Sequence to fold (290 residues):
Amino acid sequence: MEVLKKDEIKCIFPKRDENSHKGNFGYVGIMGGSIEYSGAVKLANLSCASLTSGAGVVRLIVPEEIAISVMPYLLEQTLFTVQSKGGHMIFDKEEIDKSIKKLKALAIGMGWGESIENEKILSYILETKDIPVIIDADGLNTLAKMDKSILNKSKCKVILTPHLKEFERISGYDFEKIKNKPEELAIKFANKYNVILLLKGHTTIVTNGKTTYLVKRGCSGMATAGSGDVLSGILVGLLGYNDSNVLSIAAGAYLAGLAGEIAEKELNDISMKASDTISKIPEAINEIRK
Fold:
């Protein structure tokens, strides 16, 4: 277990060949949104964070009923709509297959809401798709209701990004025990279920049960709505052109925290928004590359 240092993650942000094209840096997807939480701006921010972190193409996958609210906020991103009822996605095998076709990585769960259809979608993806899948927000709430043994049987490389309360729900560990022994329980869970776990906190813990990094970047200005979404966007963006290993995920947490620190320094800890962190991702990458 070690505190992650800048020099260790320079390899995650290599200089690009002049003959590169967007396909070299991966098609990535972000699946989320619901009628209760269309979160149009946040979903757009998520996809923007992925592009700014280096993904070649970002596909935003949303229920068809909220597409019209999301579209005005999209510029370089692409949009894929999934059949929905009552503002929630409906599980349709062929549509889900189309939505994630050619994707190098997928983030799922942001603003997704709660629905039995979500359990069907998540189960199908985990059981049949051989891609890295980042599960966050309502994706974690969905997973908490499911049999966790699906994680051991999953074809996907699973990355979970809970805060302490979400970790309590998916792990069954007592909240106070998690607060007192976060590293120990994170490692235990990751090892048991063969996942990469990013446990958010003042010190973020990233572990696959064998290798563990402590990420001590970030600031109080990031304690604002949408910061977790931005992190998920950064992570899936990095997986567009990096292997889905514990160092890549730790690098994403480092990048998000550093970008937040730069934003807070320019603004202040009270006025910061999640989009301010996104705007400082380029500066943070330059700092890492130094």
User: Anything to note?
Assistant: The mean pLDDT is 95. The chain has one domain: 24-289. Residues 246-266 form the longest helix (21 residues).
